[in-house]
Automatic annotation (TrEMBL):
MF term (GO), any: tRNA binding
GO-annotated biological processes: regulation of translational fidelity; tRNA processing
Name by which UniProt lists this protein: Threonylcarbamoyl-AMP synthase
Homology family: Belongs to the SUA5 family.
Class of this enzyme: transferase
Domain YrdC-like: 19-206
InterPro entries, alphabetized: DHBP_synth_RibB-like_a/b_dom (IPR017945), Sua5-like_dom (IPR006070), Sua5/YwlC_C (IPR038385), Sua5_C (IPR005145), T(6)A37_SUA5 (IPR010923), TC-AMP_synthase_SUA5 (IPR050156)
GO CC annotation: cytoplasm
Species of origin: Lacicoccus qingdaonensis
Main location class: cytoplasm
Length: 349
């Protein structure tokens, strides 16, 4: 199939031309097609969460395991209440604080509204309200709850720009919205609210400390991967380029590259390390400074995609220091590396 591209920027949402596109997108989604949707985290592959056929198209296009549940995107609490329970006022307080924004809440599921495939037959559902103006406008205009995992082939780096979606899914989906790139560049925090204390199932921009500033001392962290995941990102290797990815301490970067003579090498690191990189080594800058975790997270998937398309045989990626603000970034790097190998001594704050 030919994949259609709609050009919709955040600053032209109320133009007559955009309204025509919104109406077309509503029709496409109503008839069970799936589209690439911009959000503030990464681009999503969106389809009607109540339509089993649309959900199956998402799984097919992404080549995604069927037991990996999808996050449902909404535009209002009223829409959420059609299919999910809000167990207590503390959760509502968190929603009021952080929505619209990069956090998803796992909630008890009500019967007979969301397709069982959307939640991988679980009795819970992950829900979020995106802050990207285009995504929110589409959700409001269509009034359809949209399941929207990252718009990439499963296991590969997530897309942060519509061109990444085209690279992976052209000809596999009905259309893609060409719009503003993602602000954050990594997927949302996922908070499991089906148990107490609430548990972070996937780290993201909203941290444990952020959450506990609203509901003090009532947030834990999931201990690891699960046989039946309650959230995307818990069970399978993700975000990976085709080449081996090895974490490396900055203190041994130059020494390691000098000793590696037999392979084409790529390095992903903060800009200041560029001076230590030989000319024949492919270098991609993630950020200016080692503690600029937000910028590094925003650029991570783009850097992995660039390396994926290069002729390097092995990729070294800078191992950022461990602290609350780097947790989500390191989570994605570890998932991309799989069985992580770290060269050099640990540097943990």
């Amino acid at each position: 199939m030919d994949t259609k591209i709609w050009q919709i920027s955040s600053d032209e949402l109320n133009s007559p031309g955009t309204l025509d596109k919104l109406e077309e997108i509503k029709t496409v989604l109503t008839y069970g097609e799936v589209i690439g949707l911009p959000t503030e985290t990464v681009y999503g592959l969106a389809g009607d969460a109540t339509n089993p056929e649309a959900i199956q198209k998402i799984f097919n296009a992404k080549e995604r395991p069927q037991d990996n549940p999808l996050i449902v995107h909404i535009h209002s609490i009223e829409q959420l209440e059609k299919f999910a329970e809000i167990p207590d006022e503390r959760i509502l307080k968190l929603m009021e604080t952080f929505w619209p924004g990069p956090i998803s809440f796992i909630l008890p599921l009500k019967d007979n509204y969301i397709a069982a495939k959307t939640v991988a037959d679980l009795r819970s559902v992950a829900v979020r309200m995106p802050s990207h103006p285009v995504a929110l406008r589409i959700l409001e205009y269509t009034d359809i709850p949209l399941a929207a995992p990252s718009a990439n082939i499963s296991g590969k780096p997530s897309p942060t720009d519509y061109s990444h979606v085209i690279e992976d899914l052209k000809g596999k989906v009905y259309g893609v919205i060409a719009s503003d790139s993602a602000d954050y560049g990594i997927e949302s925090t996922v908070l499991d609210c089906t148990t107490f204390p609430y548990r972070i199932a996937r780290p993201g921009e909203v941290t444990k400390e952020d959450l506990e500033s609203v509901i003090d001392g009532q947030v834990a962290v999931h201990s690891g991967d699960m046989e039946k995941p309650v959230s995307p990102g818990m069970k399978y290797k993700h975000y990976a380029p085709r080449q081996p990815l090895i974490l490396i301490e900055g203190s041994v970067l130059s020494q390691t590259l000098t000793s590696e003579k037999e392979q084409n090498i790529g390095v992903i690191a903060p800009e200041r390390f560029r001076r230590d990189i030989p000319e024949d080594v492919e270098f991609v800058s993630l950020c200016q400074k080692e503690d600029d975790y937000r910028e590094a997270a925003k650029n991570l998937y783009g850097a992995l995609r660039k390396m994926d398309k290069s002729d390097v045989d092995i990729i070294y990626i800078y191992r950022f220091r461990v602290n609350p603000r780097s947790e989500a970034l390191l989570n994605r790097i570890y998932k991309a590396a799989g069985d992580v190998l770290i060269k050099g001594a640990h540097e943990i704050d």
